[in-house]
Specification:
Elements lengths: L1 H11 L16 H8 L4 E3 L11 E6 L2 H12 L6 H18 L8 E5 L4 H7 L3 H15 L4 E3 L3 E3 L11 H8 L3 E3 L4 H5 L3 E9 L3 H14 L13 H12 L32 E8 L1 H8 L1
Parallel strand pairs: 2-8, 3-4, 3-7, 7-8
Antiparallel strand pairs: 1-2, 5-6
Helix pairs in contact: 4-6, 7-9
Length: about 290
């Protein structure tokens, strides 16, 4: 109901730009440019969590970008999902280009889930909304993209605010899981892109990649070694060395079955490259990427 009332309010009441406060403008040209005007770039936090996939971000988190993200996430400015989806679509496109995607196979966007209590308090799931908007934009360009909302929290976690990088990794370690029955869909994709609205320490993306990679039989997903393609190569090597994967008899998540026999190349899952894309990343991530 909150989302419905917010949409109705936006139609009948004047609004100001959430990025800079320009009156009677839903989003001014300057703030839109801050979100979508620059080419998305590869970013990485410092320190970098072990297992973090290759991450591409549309913009640094600060100024107008921060204000727009918070307006959408915390203040229920739902129409902003479209421009955030535009920015996210650019980051997804950059991630796929960096992975050397040349085929026309399906691409899955997997949103990092919000805590249930946060979704209830906000009245919507901001990452899922942005992912759906991004998928729509990418489909209009001919890319076979869909959103697969299959991650969920398996245990309660603390509020991340105030936690440092190490504390966030401990807080989130093992906290996510793939819903039963989703393994077949994940393994049928050519590329899987974990998406979020913001990266600070990379702990959430690392945990999401771990959960998805475990179902796909890809372990040590995307660990970067300092080069542009090292994360992709790491995921591919892990997939080539994996043991045989057998779906569970009850159609469950298809976790790996250790049989001691190598998986034939012809039967390898195509979803052996898992990447990440975010609307915004901490400014420090962009600084590190320049060096």
């Amino acid at each position: 109901m909150r989302g419905w009332w917010q949409d109705l309010t936006d139609l009948v009441l004047p609004v100001d730009c959430p990025g800079c406060g320009t009156p009677r403008v839903a989003l001014c040209a300057g703030c839109r440019s801050a979100l979508c005007g620059a080419a998305p770039r590869r970013v990485r936090p410092d320190p970098q969590p072990r297992g973090l996939p290759a991450v591409h971000a549309a913009a640094p988190y600060g100024g107008a970008v921060r204000a727009v993200l918070l307006a959408h996430k915390e203040r229920g400015a739902l129409p902003l999902a479209e421009v955030l989806g535009e920015a996210l679509a650019g980051a997804v496109r950059a991630a796929l280009l960096g992975a050397g995607r040349v085929g026309g196979g399906p691409v899955l966007l997997v949103p990092v889930p919000s805590a249930r209590r946060a979704v209830r308090a906000r009245g919507h799931d901001p990452v899922r909304r942005s992912a759906l908007a991004a998928a729509g934009r990418l489909r209009r360009t001919g890319m076979p993209v869909s959103v697969l909302d299959v991650l969920r929290q398996r245990r309660a976690v603390e509020d991340q605010a105030g936690l440092n990088s190490r504390e966030r990794q401990v807080n989130l370690s093992g906290a996510l899981e793939v819903v039963p029955g989703a393994g077949r869909l994940l393994r049928g994709a050519e590329r899987i892109v974990v998406v979020d609205d913001l990266m600070t320490t990379g702990a959430s993306l690392t945990e999401a990649a771990r959960a998805v990679g475990g179902v796909c039989g890809v372990h040590g997903v995307g660990e970067e070694r300092g080069s542009t393609t090292a994360g992709v190569r790491g995921a591919q090597v892990a997939a080539e060395r994996q043991r045989e994967i057998r779906p569970s008899p009850d159609g469950g998540d298809g976790r790996a079955s250790r049989t001691g026999k190598a998986l034939p190349a012809s039967e390898m899952h195509r979803s052996n490259t898992i990447l990440a894309a975010v609307v915004a990343a901490s400014p420090a991530s962009f600084e590190i990427n320049r060096n």
